[in-house]
Design goal:
This protein has 485 residues and is α/β, with parallel strands linked by helices. The chain has two domains: 335 residues, Alpha-Beta Complex (Amidase signature (AS) enzymes), CATH 3.90.1300; 75 residues, no CATH class. It contains 15 helices and eleven strands. β2, α4 and β3 form a beta-alpha-beta unit. α2 packs antiparallel against α3. The longest helix is centred in the C-terminal third of the chain and has 22 residues. It is globular, with a radius of gyration of 21 Å. The structure holds glutamine. The site of glutamine (GLN) has 13 residues, from loops. Glutamine binds next to loops.
Length: 485
């Protein structure tokens, strides 16, 4: 019986009914990864340790978690003890961490099996996975098309049915946008819900880990395992973690959904607009009603993000100096030369661009004009959300302005073109709010995503609204043909 395209819930039932054993399931996953090697989803496989862990997982233990024996893939910016962690950068191409990130550790402690580390945009900077040192990832729906980014390898591995779920990180949309482009479900939790310890930092005040899976229900299973306070991350929240599966079946009668007036959808492809209108009708039939809301400062999200994120990255990436981590250039004259050559050779163009912008924005004389100003605008955006959530439960937008595009077609001449991809996703990172992307149909045979944004710590509402939508539609069941792979 094939395990490809099965959800966690389905695999759990197969394991519990002894239709397959944990070691067999893990081997199936490794086989699928090999079969679809050309997708380029994985940077490093974890065959030896993954096999060993699958052989020792005890499914008869009555306290065994839902994740016991379930194969998962981890984005290659989560440190994994003894397993190469590259951030898809040359500068970390040989880095083997001495510890495991809390988010991954929690998943492994629940009995899941890490089968490998997934390809991504270098240091999570990008929206197409094209900045990876390890090459492009193909979208399983169409060869030669991007899977989205930066968690493109994770999204493609889940979409191709190699693993039922994977981890990602989202600084400005990197879980939701690739989930949308690959036709799967991806959740960015509230900032602080999941520990960032052991995640290689891009922009620390925005980065957040989260799950990519085939269904909202499976995202809830992963979120249950990954969430919680961690004394090793000072920004991790101490709030109680509810059981995210508990209220997932609540009826949606009376749910108030806000549509953001400032996002002019009439500029989008008419088919993308049509999918959005269809989904509104589905929600209306489920008892929800829509109101138009105004977030007057939201149109400043993209420039605000592209000031703050590079500023934080220029500081975070200063640790990669050729001395302490990873790549070190050869033929060095002196210390300065070592820094310059190691960083020039170790980082790719997009990372260098961000470091330059960030260093400029933080420099004396420009700090107030750029960084401080951006932080002030960020506060205004957050206040807009606080106001709006007094009168609506959730907000609904498209996840991305368009579907997946061809390799080398966007942002090559003008990076801003690619930055505009993040129009709908970035504001929830700036405000620290949870948001989810669920598939809601296709345009020209490529998946389209629907985004729901929730109030602070209300992942339960997002998962409930997404799960009920998925119980009443079949968009999440669509599978890529994987033609040509
Ligand atoms: N596309 C955005 C960027 O390049 C977001 C990336 C992310 O969420 N990691 O910064």
């Amino acid at each position: 019986m094939s395990v490809q395209f099965k959800s966690i819930t389905e695999l759990r039932a197969m394991l519990d009914n002894k239709l397959i054993s944990a070691p067999e399931l893990t081997q199936e996953s490794f086989q699928l990864a090999k079969k679809y090697k050309e997708l380029n989803c994985f940077v490093t496989m974890n065959e030896e340790l993954g096999t060993k862990n699958a052989n020792t997982v005890d499914l008869n233990d009555k306290n065994a978690s839902t994740l016991a024996g379930i194969p998962l893939a981890q984005k290659d910016l989560f440190c994994t003890e003894g397993l190469r962690t590259t951030c898809s950068s040359k500068i970390l191409a040989n880095f083997i961490p001495p510890y495991t990130a809390t988010a991954v550790k929690k998943l492994e402690d629940a009995g899941s099996i890490t089968i490998g580390k997934t390809n991504m945009d270098e240091f999570a900077m990008g929206s197409s996975n094209e900045t990876s040192y390890f090459g492009n990832v193909h979208n399983p729906w169409k060869k030669g098309y991007v899977p989205g980014g930066s968690s493109g390898g994770s999204a493609a591995a889940v979409s191709a049915g190699i693993v039922p779920a994977a981890t990602g990180t989202d600084t400005g949309g990197s879980i939701r946008q690739p989930a949308a482009h690959c036709g799967i479900t991806g959740l960015k939790p509230t900032y602080g819900r999941i520990s960032r310890w052991g995640m290689i930092a891009f922009a620390s005040s925005l980065d957040q880990a989260g799950p990519l899976a085939r269904t909202a229900e499976d995202c809830a299973i992963l979120l249950n395992a990954m969430s919680g306070h961690d004394s090793k991350d000072t920004t991790s929240l101490s709030s109680n973690v509810p059981d995210f599966l508990e209220d997932i079946n609540q009826p949606l009668d009376g749910l108030k959904i806000g549509i953001i007036k400032e996002f002019d959808l009439s500029d989008l492809d008419s088919e993308v607009q049509a999918r959005f209108e269809d989904s509104k009708k589905i929600y209306e039939n489920l008892g929800a009603h829509f109101v138009e809301v105004s977030l007057p400062n939201i149109s400043a999200s993209v420039p605000t993000y592209y000031s703050i994120a590079p500023a934080e990255c220029s500081s975070n990436l200063s640790r990669f100096d050729g001395v302490r981590f990873g790549y070190r250039a050869e033929d060095i004259d002196d210390l300065n030369d070592l820094y310059i050559k190691s960083r020039s050779e170790g980082f790719g163009d997009e990372v260098k661009r961000r470091i330059l912008i960030g260093t400029y924005a933080l420099s004396t004389g420009y700090y107030d004009a750029y960084y401080k100003k951006a932080q002030q605008v960020r506060r205004l955006i957050k206040n807009d959300f606080d106001n709006i959530f007094q009168s609506v439960d959730i907000l609904m937008t498209p996840t991305s302005p368009n579907t997946a595009f061809k390799f080398d077609s966007k942002g090559m001449q003008n990076p801003v073109e690619l930055y505009l991809e993040d129009l709908f996703t970035i504001s929830s990172n700036l405000a620290g709010l949870p948001a989810i992307s669920i598939p809601h149909g296709q345009v020209n045979s490529l998946p389209v995503g629907l985004q729901l944004i929730g109030n602070f710590l209300r992942e339960d509402q997002l998962l409930n609204a997404s799960h009920i939508f998925q119980q009443n539609s079949d968009f999440h069941l669509a599978q890529p043909s994987l033609e040509g792979f």
